[in-house]
Amino acid sequence: DEAALRQGQKMEAVGQLTGGMAHDFNNILQIVQANLDLIKEDMVGNEVTLSRLQSASAAAERGARLTQQLLAFSRRQPLAPRPTNVGRLVHDLSGLLRHALGERITLEVAVPAEAWNATIDPGQLENAILNLAINARDAMPEGGTVRVEVSNATLDRRYASLHSEVSPGSYVLIDVIDTGTGMPAEVVARAFDPFFTTKQEGKGTGLGLSMVYGFVRQSNGHIRIDSAIGQGTSVKLYLPRTLDPVVDAASEATSPAGGTA
Length: 261
Ligand code: ADP
Description:
This is histidine kinase. By secondary structure, the chain is an alpha+beta fold. Helices cover 50% and strands 21% of the residues. The N and C termini lie far apart (46 Å). Residues 135-136, 139, 178, 180-181, 183, 187, 191, 196-199, 204-210, 233 line the site of adenosine-5'-diphosphate.
């Protein structure tokens, strides 16, 4: 599929370009940050200078966040996929989501009682959902509702014939729905492009959705955006469903009696 290929090439190029630079930048920012902290200690009692230092610290921190995102993007950590109960993962993430969304936003989490598993890297799925929630928050400056829904979905032959990367079958669907600004068609069309952002200088990196896209594609999944201006956005992640059981990490780590590592 032409578009998917182009997307892959773009991500490859960005990854190579930024890997080394982001690393050096991160080190530089650490030094800036450490010195600002020292100066703050020297300036105790000097409110004007302290507030200026605070602004400088905040800027350095934004820079550090950006470079960390660039690093994560370029490092392309190899995925460590394993059968994962997606509903449980979302349920366990809800505390963190609530925290990230802040007080003006209502969080609803709808998770099935059934255990639907997908073979994915759980840490990367958490990152992906967090990224989507933060985009949802940013689209609702006056507050609103974010709903994260996990369900079972079938993508049929007809759907697959319209989306060349999709194989027909059973998927676990994670739908992140907001009541925010919505996205014009031209924003939806470019949303997965690395560095595409409509956010204010310093607020967005344009890497969130391209990272989510990379994760979903590497997991043989499918992602789509449905959005209506003034009503909100739904970002759907379809991850191929597996019947393989979840391996309990705790029992895996404990070696059997007499066993040696
Ligand atoms: P960033 O969040 O850093 O801008 P992303 O790749 O995550 O980068 O998103 C790209 C753009 O897509 C955003 O700048 C925004 O315009 C749009 N977008 C993403 N999610 C939403 C959403 N839930 N509602 C409205 N617009 C969105």
